[in-house]
Amino acid sequence: xxxxxxxxxxxxxxxxxxxxxxxxxxxxxxxxxxxxxxxxxxxxxxxxxxxxxxxxxxxxxxxxxxxxxxxxxxxxx
Length: 77
Known about the structure:
Radius of gyration: 25 Å
Helix content: 55-70%
Number of helices: 3
Order of helices and strands: HHH
Structural class: mainly alpha
Largest sheet: none
């Protein structure tokens, strides 16, 4: 792990201390959990944005096979 410092407002610090006491965890553990949640959410948002940008990128291509016909052939076998 890498040590880092953060600044919290007094309210944040007090609420974090109360949550840590109730949960039986260290404040640093709660902060790491919160950072992991943020990273997971941001990662999902980035993936979703990439998929949205990629949607329809092949729609105007004339050099691709007829996928409906190909699929129909597969379904017959």
